[in-house]
Amino acid sequence: xxxxxxxxxxxxxxxxxxxxxxxxxxxxxxxxxxxxxxxxxxxxxxxxxxxxxxxxxxxxxxxxxxxxxxxxxxxxxxxxxxxxxxxxxxxxxxxxxxxxxxxxxxxxxxxxxxxxxxxxxxxxxxxxxxxxxxxxxxxxxxxxxxxxxxxxxxxxxxxxxxxxxxxxxxxxxxxxxxxxxxxxxxxxxxxxxxxxxxxxxxxxxxxxxxxxxxxxxxxxxxxxxxxxxxxxxxxxxxxxxxxxxxxxxxxxxxxxxxxxxxxxx
Length: 265
Hints:
Number of helices: 8
Largest sheet: 7 strands, parallel
Order of helices and strands: EHEHEHEHEHEHHHE
Distance between the termini: 42 Å
Strand order of the largest sheet: 3-2-1-4-5-6-7
Number of strands: 7
Strand content: 5-15%
Helix content: 40-55%
Structural class: alpha/beta
């Protein structure tokens, strides 16, 4: 029997088929879970993602969800419960990467958007599902933070680092508060992952160092002991483990999935 057979999972920020959210959804499906993906993306994009997931042989569905809007998140949960009558796993994956590595160049809107999505989006998700998880006396919440939520990394905007640190702190506090309700809360902290946003990172490295994109990748690889950037599915594997009964005694942890890359200062 697959590790997550019979479990239902909701993954936010999973609308882009090359993103971490979709990679997580793929691994959850492969592990036997029923998966609902959500995003701000148009419904057709989400349905295309569902088609991809169903091709793996599992059950999947999609719903629009603005994680910064409590009403929208309530509607997403209602959709899951009407469709499947249960929810076992919430993956708060939705996030944004905006700002500037020069602290003084970060705008107010950069700070506001980072806080609204990276931190408060997860807060909204937790506030939405925790009453249901308490009622059923079980549940797993997995927040997708970042290696930049464990240590300051050169070139990463301060607004991104600050909100990811806050997300790790939120995960730990909720883990402590809801352990007695048999609810586990953990964070996954990815390092370098090949997504649509990774291309922007490489472009920044290339411009900063006056090198080609391939040379920029080589520079990044040199900072990773395993020598390469992960695919989104590697993050999904960590999520599958934390969502499974095999991790039933693990809560309040922030798990780096970074190929040994240092967490920074």
